[in-house]
């Protein structure tokens, strides 16, 4: 039992440990705590599944927070007790409750549809989120560049001889910007090795890194500046870096170490 749990024997848990916060979408909150929408599945039998949520309640007359799993079946709300949680914040308590529910077999990962080529629901979620253009990080970066007075083209091939498309292109300044997803481009900070089909995924990601390096070389050889931005980077910092290069009008080589 941790220190917070011992302290709660003499004091009531604060509201922030179990009460929902205003402005937080319940579904998004549950997804984050569970580790993904696909990990909130309760098996109903016959291949059917329900999407569950965790409810946190202060036990009546006790200084304990109890977690319950709730889902709907046949128009009725079902509920199962998970256990006690004792963290200082609601987000941590929800995460602990989902881990308990998973360990006790109360929930699991929803099976993949028969037609899916992904190795797991987690992999499928990543693949479906991997849009070719107009991703959240791209839109945020483009908005800041536009506010800075810069004009550009979107999702075009800087070189007519190749099919390599850049996310943001400044044709007159010959600057090509790529906003790279952490998973598909092998971010050293956030990439996590796949648990299934590990060799195949490793080969795929290595191929992407090789292609990125080749794209950089082809563009630089043609006199273009290449800027690569990770999706996790602060868009304001990235926009400032890009603005300096575009306004300077000098050839710039991406400073990413792997390139």
UniProtKB/TrEMBL annotation:
Gene Ontology MF annotations: endonuclease activity
InterPro entries per record: DNA_mismatch_endonuc_vsr (IPR004603), Restrct_endonuc-II-like (IPR011335)
Pfam families in the record: Vsr
Stretches assigned to coiled coil: none
Region Disordered, annotated ranges: 19-39
Cell membrane listed as a keyword: no
Domain of life: Bacteria
UniProt key word Hydrolase: yes
Keywords: DNA damage, DNA repair, Endonuclease, Hydrolase, Nuclease
Family per record: Belongs to the Vsr family.
Identification of the protein by name: T/G mismatch-specific endonuclease
């Amino acid at each position: 039992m941790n220190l917070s749990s011992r302290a709660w024997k003499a004091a009531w848990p604060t509201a922030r440990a179990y009460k929902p916060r205003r402005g937080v979408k319940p579904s998004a909150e549950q997804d984050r705590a569970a580790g993904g929408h696909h990990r909130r599945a309760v098996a109903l039998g016959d291949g059917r599944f329900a999407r569950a949520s965790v409810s946190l309640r202060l036990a009546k007359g006790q200084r304990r927070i109890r977690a319950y799993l709730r889902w709907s079946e046949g128009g009725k709300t079902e509920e199962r007790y998970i256990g006690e949680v004792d963290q200082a914040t609601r987000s941590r308590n929800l995460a602990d409750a989902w881990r308990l529910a998973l360990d006790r077999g109360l929930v699991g990962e929803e099976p993949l549809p028969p037609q899916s080529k992904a190795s797991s629901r987690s992999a499928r979620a990543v693949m479906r989120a991997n849009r070719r253009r107009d991703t959240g990080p791209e839109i945020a970066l483009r908005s800041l560049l536009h506010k800075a007075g810069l004009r550009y083209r979107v999702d075009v091939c800087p070189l007519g001889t190749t099919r390599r498309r850049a996310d943001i292109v400044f044709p007159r300044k010959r600057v090509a910007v790529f906003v790279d997803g952490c998973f598909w481009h092998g971010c050293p900070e956030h990439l996590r090795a796949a648990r299934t089909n590990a060799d195949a995924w490793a080969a795929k990601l290595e191929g992407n890194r090789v292609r990125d390096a080749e794209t950089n070389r082809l563009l630089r050889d043609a006199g273009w500046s290449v800027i690569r931005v990770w999706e996790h980077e602060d868009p304001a910092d990235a926009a400032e870096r890009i603005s300096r290069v575009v306004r300077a009008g000098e050839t710039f080589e991406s400073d990413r170490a792997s390139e």
